[in-house]
Each structure stands twice: as C-alpha cells, then as structure tokens.
Amino acid sequence: MKTFHIHLVMLILILCNTYVFAQTKKIDSLKNELKLQHKKDTLRVNLLLKIVENNYKNDFQENIKFLDEAETISKEVKFKKGIAISLFYKGLIISRNSNYQFGDTYYKEAISLFNEINMHQQVINSYRNLSIFSNNQGNFNNAIHYRKQRVKYRERIGNEKVEEDLYYIGYYYYKIGKFDECISYYNKALLISDKNGNHKIFQECLTSIGNMYSHQGNHPLALKYLNQALENAKKFREPKNISDALISIGNIYIRIQDYDKAISFHKKALNEPNHDNYGSISHNLGESYKYKKEYEKSLEYFTAALNVYIKKHNRSDEAETLNKIGEIYFELNELHKANSYFENAKNINIEIENKRGLCGSYLGLGKIYFKKKQFNKALIFGLKCQKIANKLKLTDIQRDTEKLLFNIYKETGNYKKSLVSHIEYKKLNDSLFNKENIEKITQLEYEYKYKQALDSASIKELQLKKTVQTTSQNLEKSKRHYLWAIIGILLISIILGSIIFAQKLKNVKSKTQNVVMEQKLLRSQMTPHFIFNSLSVLQGMILNKEEKKSIHYLSKFSKLLRLTLENSRDKTVSLTQELRAVQDYLTLQNLENEAYKCTITVENTVNTKLFEVPPMLIQPFVENAVEHAFINQKENKKIDIRLRYLNKKLICTICDNGVGVNYQRYSKAKHKKSLSTTITSERIKILSKDLKIPGSVKIEDKQIYGKQGTLVTLEIPYIII
After folding, report:
1. Who wins on pLDDT, 193 or 101?
2. Strand 719-720 vs strand 573-574: parallel, antiparallel, or unpaired?
C-alpha cells in the first residue's frame, strides 16, 4: 500500500510537469511567432492577447507590456474587439496583483465596448469578475448589483442559465444580514437549477438554505436540507459539495453542543480532496475545541484559519475568526489581547457592513468592560448588540446579550430592568435548547439512517439476485450442488443481515423512546400553575418594594429552575443533589407564608454522597401532595419524606396528613390524572430495566392504617459509586 502511494505521487508529479512543460512550449511557440509578425495589425494584436490568455497568472510586468501594446495597436487600426479584450485582461491581472484594490475601471470600459460589438459572453464574464472583485473587497452591495446586472443581461439575450447568479445574490444578502432576501434568492436558484439539471448549484442551494435555517435556530429543518444535500453530493461524486455539507452538519452539532460529533463531521470533511474549505474547516474545529475548553488546540486551528483568510483577502471570515480568538483570550482572562482582537474585528465588520459579525464584536467588548467593572461602557456595547440582534432575529446572540444586560443592571442596582432581562434570557435559552427541537433532530436522524439502511438493503438484494441468476446460468450444465450451496449461503447472509438490521432499528427506537420520555419528564417537573404563582408572589413583593425579600425569592426560584434543567439532562445524579432540589422546592413553597411543615429524614444506612439515582423521581410526588392533598385544610399541613436502605433496596416514603388518595380519586373537584406521577411511574419501569435494579411505586390511603392522609412508597433504582 505504501509503495502504491509513492508511485501515485510520482505519477501526479510527472503529469503536472508534463502539463507545465506543454504550456511553456505553447507560450514559447506563440512568442516565436510574434517575433516574425512585425506588422502592427489585428494579427499581431491577436497573438499578443493569446500569449496573455495562456500566461496571465505569471510575469505581471510582461503581461501588462503585451496588453499596452495590444491596446495601442487596436486603437490605431480601430479594432474595438482588441481594445475590449485588452481592457478585460488588464482588469483581471491588476486585480489579482493589487489585492483587489484596482481593476474595476478596466472591466467597466471593457463592458461598454463588448456591448457595442455584441460580444455577449464577454459582457457576462466581465460582470462575474466585477462581482468577485467586489466580494473580495468586502463590498457585498456592489457584488449584488453586478450579479443582478448579469442576470438582466442574460435574460435580455435569452440565456436562462441564471441559477449560479441567483445563488450568489442570495449568498451576498446573507453576508449583510438580509435573511428574507437571502432565502428568496436561494429558493429561486434551487428551482431553476433543478429545471436546468445543474446539480452542482442545486446541492449548494440545499447546503446554503440549511445553513440559513441553522443560523436562525431551526436545526431540524436545517438538518433536513443538509442531509439531502449530502445525499445528492455523494450521488454525483462532488468532493466540494460533500465537504460543504459535512461542514454544515458539523456546525449544527456545534450549536446543539454535541462537540465530539461536530469534530467527527469536520474531520470527515478534512479528508475530502477539497483544499478550498481548509480555512472554514480549521475555523470550525477551533470553535469545537473552544467549547470543549481545550483552548490550546482551539487557538491552533483558529490561527490556521485566520492565516488562510488573510492570504485570500476574505475580510468577512477574517473578522469572524478575530472575534473567536478574542473570545478565547477572554476565557483565559487575557483581557488586553481579547480587546485588541474584538476591536480589529469590529472595524472590519463596520467597513464591510457585516451586521452579524458586528454583533459578536459588540458583545465581546461589552463582556470585557463588564469584567473590568466599567459598567457604562459595557452597557453601551450591550445595547448596540441587542438592537442589531433583535432586528436580525439572531436567537443565540439575543440570549447572550440579555444575560450580559441582566448582570449589568444587577450590578448598577437597576433591578426592574435586571428582572426583565433575566426573564427574556431564560425564554431565549429555553427556545434554543428545548427538548422538542432535540426530539425532531433525533427523529430526522433516525428517518435518514433508516432510509439509508433500506436503500442499502435494496441494492444488496438486487446484487444478490443478479449473483444467483448468473450462478444459475453458469452451473446449470455442470455441478448443481454448488448452486444450492451458494444460495444457502446467500439466504443465511440475508437472514443474518435482517436480524442485525432489526436489532439496530430496535436500538434506535429505544433511544428515541428514551428521548421522548425525558422530554415529557422535563415538561412535567414544574407545572405552569406553580411557575405562575411564583411569579405572582415575586411581582407582589416588587410592588410592595420588598427589595431584599424579592431578590432572595428570585434567587431561590432561578436556582430551582437551573437545578431542574441540569438534573433533567443527566441519566443519574447524586442523591444529595436530588434531595437539594426537593428541599429548594419545599422552601420556595413555604417562603411566603410557611403553609407547610416539611421534614426530610435520611437514616444512617444511607450515605447520600455515594448513591447515584435517576433525577426527578421524588419531586413529582411531593408536588402532588402540595397541590392536591390539603383540600379545604388551612392548618396543620405536614409532609414527611424519609429515606432508608434495607435489604439492598433504597426506599423513599412521602407521607402527608391530607385528605387521602381515595378522596382525591373520587372527589368531584378532581377530574384529571396527575401527569407527572404517571410519567414518573413509567420512567421507573424503564429505568429498572436499564440499571438492572428493581424499582416500583406504591400509593396508599392511610385510612387502611386508621390514619388520615396519603403514603407514597418509592423503591428507587440506584448506582453506588
């Protein structure tokens, strides 16, 4: 294998050298012909232009000399075509050698002459080069203008192949943050490219639409488009489009915080033979390692990406990468370096009118000034960022900005605005990371993998049928028992393959079921009734100007919300953490009027630090007691929680002195079943199988013991660490 690679490399080098040699030979031949053509006529002009056409990437001075001569002769003999082509190549060569600072004037003069002599393709090429020229300068409005001019010209001459131009117009609108116009042009390009059979642009449109939805936080719809793009790219064997789709899917996993999966997709993209994406892949790997807090690796990849963007004069991506490096230095508490990178990024983003990038720069500077306790400056940058992010509906930046403003207002004593920002932050945070989106992503992944598996099974089935038919024809005249042996092996393979496939499908369905169950659990933990009551109590405290009490209440409430969300994401948590959540819930219920007498007793046989239990098993039953146990009972409300470890069983009892479960079941006032209790019971059954530890729920009316109230006995599945 190693020898083969060496031979392959040698072959490529030989082919490259052969091509260069042939090209050099052609240019030398044209130059020799030029020496024999002394007359200043169109023939000499065409020879000069032919030499430049074959050698425009090399020897800047010589090419300009040839073009000057071609232009001069063309003017003397009134050869408009020669003048126009000379100007076109001057624009191209000067642009390439001046970092796209000059060259547009020559293109514009060339277009005017091409129009006069009806050289339609050259007009189209000139508009394309002007658009590329403007893009590389970071002037996206001009880039849009020239692409639109190109579309109009194509339509005027009856050329309907405008899908590439529509795609790039959408791309430039995306760069300046006009997302409605962006998606409109992408969809136009998608329809026309499909009609014209342009699969390359069709795939790029799918990828770009996926990226658009991803940036707006609609990850399930983004994955749908990107998986379709990846399928099409593989079908047509387009390395660049495969790489683009892999990068974009990796970016989604960055946004939903699955960084290992993101790194996996970006490294797959890195293995594709497409070097144009090296900068963006390095950038995204840097971002993934940044979130994993592996800052050394992150800086290494970001620096590599920055060097690529600077070399390519890609101002937009250069600014974005500067923002990312600034974020890393902020995390490392090197505020001076962070400030320098954010300032550089801000200046570039203002220059090229990149509003999304400008948001990132403002947010970074706001955080730095907040950390320096320069709250007025921090507030200025925070409000600037908030204004742009709200206008563009950039959910992730809106959330981070609201968090910054919450902290600024809190530190400056503006508690009213602090509360508003905190509520807005929580709403945006829940929107970004809600379980419904994750369930949709899981479902899409499942459907995509299931479809792939079915397609693969169909292909294998066709191949097997073909093999059987061929074998039958070949063996009919000889040894028939070989045929039966082969058919037997094939049938066994199909059966085994089907069993393996069915098992994998069962595992995927099981994982999906667990995700759905966890979502139901999260939604059931804190009822809207409890949240509404808590916020109403808080509002009352604020209106009564009970500042200390309201801040204490808000702290308890936010702590309980955070703990509930954190616990819901883990398979198991320590028993200490689980009991703390229950204690915080009971404390919050009693904070206003001390309505309940609550006790939590842990026997000596239970070391809460050693036991790991599934989260949120106890709290739903405690909440049920608070909500329903004390109907018409105003005094002497008791809830006792006790944990003990007996016969290798972790037992938790929740006991109240309320009306009793029988009353609750048959009371006319109660017509619905407790959702959280039902979900918890279902969960215990699943968790018992998963952890291989028995678990159960038993709910009794204490009337059978001659007492008043309800007794819940939980046998909790556990792990001892």
Report:
1. 193
2. unpaired
Q: The tokens 């098992």 sit on which residue?
A: 503
C-alpha to C-alpha distance for 608 and 572, rounded to whole angstroms: 13
Among 155, 154, 183, which residue's Cα sits nearest to residue 170? 183
| Mean per-residue pLDDT over the chain, rounded | 81
Contact 355, 179 (CB under 8 A): no
pLDDT at 198 over 80: yes
Give the chain's end-to-end CA distance (angstroms, integer). 48
Query: Tokens 């390519």, residue?
Result: 312
d(CA 37, CA 32): 9
Name which of 263, 252, 165 is nearest 207 in CA terms. Answer: 252
**Rounded-to-integer distance, Cα 397 and Cα 360, Å:** 8
Q: Which residues pair with 613 in a beta bridge?
A: 573
Neighbours of 448 (CB within 10 A): 16
- How far, in Å, CA of 350 to CA of 354, rounded? 7
Q: Six-digit token pair at 700?
A: 């009794």
Least confident interval from 124-128, 230-234, 274-278? 274-278
Give CA–CA dist 374/381, Å, rounded: 11
Helix 104-116 with 120-137: angle, nearest 10 deg: 160
Pairing status of strand 696-701 against strand 649-656 = unpaired
Model's pTM, two decimal places?
Answer: 0.41
Query: If residue 710 lies in a helix (H) or strand (E), which one and from where to where?
Result: strand 710-716
The band of 71, judged by pLDDT with boundaries at 50, 70 and 90, is confident
Which of 182, 121, 120, 172 lies closest to 146 in space, CA to CA?
172
